[in-house]
Specification:
By secondary structure, the protein is α/β, with parallel strands linked by helices. About 30% of the residues lie in helices and about 30% in strands. A hairpin with a 2-residue loop joins strand 10 and strand 11.
Length: about 280
């Protein structure tokens, strides 16, 4: 049986109007989590599953077991969106984008060992296209169970959520923590500088990656904010390691306009704020 690490569900599911709810899921080879948001922007359910998968066939088997056991995922909702967090992607400026060369561009950057389906999407507000590759079995799995629309990539949605002038006008580094990897997004000089995943094993690995990013982008680690979201505890060795090198470490806040339960508020807000932000932005 696959038990979620976080299992937050409304106390009275019987009165929920599922036909007015949206299911937003995020997945990669290490985790699967989702949130259900009602038409009034209330969080109905939020669950996080962490697992280890060695190949895509095993991953779809695990996800199939989760769906069979999870009562929320059995409900028929207004719409369902799946966000893929897979590192095999390539960001291409508008003027250089040509769908006929998507495969060649991806293989130039990531090689041709991994096979899968190739997709591309325009990043709204950024004059950039995102080309990405997904494991075919995984993509077909979600299409079968949830009748999702076009696949969405985490990098695309994260950039679309942060295209407001109030955000891009200031230099900042945002880091999202996932099992065994971080996603770093750097905005500096009003432009996107970096959006990249980095694997890690220790807190020192993360500090090294971020120090290198600050240096490459010409940012002052004593002044440029480091905004952190995802599963990192404030009293952890990892957080203490970051504070050694970066003077302005901030938690990523919960999005405004969202109604959350006491259960959600019982955890640090930055644990779930990235997924909740994406859920409000996705279309």
């Amino acid at each position: 049986m696959n038990k979620p690490d976080f299992d937050i569900v409304s106390e009275d599911l019987a009165v929920v109007d599922w036909s007015d709810c949206r299911l937003v899921m995020e997945v990669n080879s290490q985790y699967f989590h989702y949130v259900v948001i009602s038409g009034t922007k209330s969080v109905i359910a939020l669950k996080y599953y962490h697992f280890t998968s060695h190949n895509n066939l095993e991953l779809t088997n695990i996800l199939g077991e989760i769906i069979k056991e999870d009562i929320v995922l059995k409900e028929r909702m207004k719409d369902s969106v799946v966000i893929y967090n897979h590192p095999e992607n390539c960001l291409v400026p508008d003027q250089y984008f040509n769908p006929d060369f998507n495969k060649e561009m991806l293989e130039l950057v990531h090689g041709d060992i991994n096979k899968g389906t190739i997709h591309s999407e325009k990043i709204q507000g950024w004059d950039i296209f995102n080309i990405f590759r997904l494991p075919q079995d995984l993509h077909e799995f979600f299409q079968h169970y949830f009748l999702c629309g076009m696949p969405r990539h985490l990098y695309t949605l994260w950039l679309e959520c942060h295209r407001e002038p109030a955000i891009t006008a200031h230099d900042n580094v945002c880091v999202l923590f996932y099992p065994n990897e971080i996603l770093a997004v750097v905005l500096a000089g009003g432009q996107l500088q970096v959006v990249q995943s980095f694997p890690y094993k220790t807190a020192e690995d993360i500090a090294w990656h971020l120090l290198n990013i600050y240096k490459r982008c010409g940012l002052d680690q004593s002044k440029t904010p480091l905004v952190i979201g995802g599963l990192i505890n404030h009293n952890s060795a990892m957080h203490e390691e970051l504070k050694k090198y970066f003077l302005d470490v901030r938690p990523y806040p919960l999005p405004e306009g969202l109604i959350v339960t006491e259960q959600v508020n019982s955890f640090p807000g930055h644990f779930f704020s990235p997924l909740l932000k994406l859920a409000l932005c996705v279309s």
